[in-house]
Write a structure and sequence with these properties.
The protein has a single domain (21-329), classed as Coagulation Factor XIII, Chain A, domain 1 (Distorted Sandwich). It contains four helices and 16 strands. It has helices spanning 4-17, 74-77, 152-158, 335-374, and strands at 25-30, 33-36, 88-91, 95-100, 111-117, 132-139, 141-143, 150-151, 162-166, 174-184, 195-206, 216-217, 263-266, 276-279, 295-296, 305-306. The strands form four sheets. Strands 9-4-1-2-13-14 form a six-stranded mixed β-sheet. It has a six-stranded mixed β-sheet with strand order 3-11-10-5-6-12. Strand 1 and strand 2 (33-36) form a beta hairpin. Helix 1 packs across helix 4. It is globular. The protein starts with a helix and ends with a helix. The model is unreliable at 1-20, 274-339 and 370-375 (pLDDT under 50). It catalyses: [(1->4)-beta-D-glucosyl]n+m + reduced acceptor + O2 = 4-dehydro-beta-D-glucosyl-[(1->4)-beta-D-glucosyl]n-1 + [(1->4)-beta-D-glucosyl]m + acceptor + H2O. Its cofactor is Cu(2+). One of its GO terms (cellular component) is extracellular region. GO terms for molecular function: hydrolase activity; metal ion binding; monooxygenase activity.
Length: 375
């Protein structure tokens, strides 16, 4: 019979499962090569996790960064983030498909992508607070005729929980951090209610571009009172001011489509520039028609989404599945050491789940008050 401790743990985890469903990025796909991201469900519990292109972070609860932490380093690449030790190679003008494991339909909001130049030494050891980000992609409100509207996050869900972003063809070669983010607005009608979910990846851009756009430090991207952060989605809407700096010259919002995985690629380290890939089963499917992407204005500091269909062409091939993340190292079977490792992992999981449940419960109460007020 399970002990009282085991029963309590199962109760906590079961209760938290209904609220901890935000998701995280599992991998990115570049021209058929799938690069592993930072897997929060297993890597934190490994003695020697694999070298990947995704930045390390402590969001094991799939949690978020709240507006009251916008001035802290957590907003840069998520909570307690640390540099990825590997990178992927992409040619300027090519697309990167960013695959999430899941995303809740209720968490409507914009999808935004940035780049930050790491300099000639690469992105593996630099100080993240020195990174200066410029915006290369954004999709906010797509259709606001019926609350809460259709958003970039809804388009991501329709596209198999994946997002396609193009590296502008005019960007100069070099090492960059790609910062991908969803901002959930379901509780943003009141102070500190928005939820930011930043995810970072190291890439090396090749090509013949020459532009080196100026950027903004991560801790200066947003403020808690920005028009697109403190925003009520539970009303009829005609526009939405996507937060952050304006899109750079040459930025393109591509029509969303899935990318086929042909190979499992190994993250490169140091200043290596030639990707190594191993064969993996192909996972191609027919591509559904890509939904219209809202274009945005880059002429002002805070762009406003206009409901105009995108004229950029869609990428054709599309997968339904991506390469599986590396399996977590199993603790030693039997003995005190193995049992101790299991107990520590269980306590960490329980603590993370309980914290997430508490945060979501508080937000649910706020949301209920907002809806009651609107009614």
């Amino acid at each position: 019979m399970p002990s009282f401790t085991s029963k309590s743990l199962l109760t906590i985890l079961a209760g938290a499962a209904s609220v901890v469903a935000h998701g995280h990025v599992t991998n990115i796909v570049i021209n058929g090569d799938s690069y592993q991201g930072y897997e929060i469900n297993s890597f934190p519990y490994m003695a020697n996790p694999p070298i990947v292109v995704g930045w390390t972070a402590s969001n094991t609860d799939n949690g978020f960064v709240a507006p009251d932490a916008f001035s802290s380093a957590d907003i840069i690449c998520h909570r307690n983030s640390a540099n990825a030790k590997g990178h992927a190679v992409v040619k300027a003008g090519d697309n990167i498909s960013i695959q999430w494991d899941t995303w809740p339909e209720s968490h409507h909001g914009p999808v935004i992508d940035y780049l930050a130049n790491c300099g000639t030494a690469g992105c593996e050891t630099l100080d993240k607070t020195a990174l200066e980000f410029f915006k290369i992609d954004e999709v906010g409100l797509i259709d606001g005729s019926a609350a809460p509207g259709k958003w970039g996050s809804d388009q991501l869900i329709e596209n198999g929980n994946s997002w396609l972003v193009q590296i502008p063809s005019n960007i100069a070669p070099g090492f960059y951090v790609l910062r991908h983010e969803i901002i959930a607005l379901h509780s943003a009608g009141q102070a500190n209610g928005a939820q930011n979910y930043p995810q970072c990846f190291n890439i090396q851009v090749t090509g013949t571009g020459t532009d080196k756009p100026a950027g903004v430090k991560g801790t200066a991207l947003y403020t808690p009172n920005d028009a697109g952060i403190l925003f009520n989605i539970y009303q009829s809407l005609t526009s939405y001011p996507v937060p952050g700096p304006a899109l750079i010259k040459g930025a393109v919002n591509v029509a969303q489509a899935r990318s086929a995985v042909a190979r499992t690629a190994t993250a490169l380290t140091g200043l290596a520039a030639a990707p190594a890939a191993t064969a993996a089963p192909a996972t191609t499917t027919s591509v559904a028609a890509a939904p219209a992407v809202a274009t945005t204005s880059a002429a002002v500091a805070v762009p406003t989404t206009t409901l105009v269909p995108s004229t950029t062409k869609a990428v054709t091939a599309a997968p339904t599945t991506t390469t599986a993340a590396p399996a977590a190292t199993k603790p030693a079977k039997g003995g005190c050491r193995g049992k101790s490792q299991k107990r520590r992992a269980a306590r960490r999981a329980a603590a993370a789940a309980a914290a997430a449940a508490a945060r979501e419960a508080a937000l649910a109460r706020r949301h209920a008050r907002d809806v009651a007020f609107l009614d």
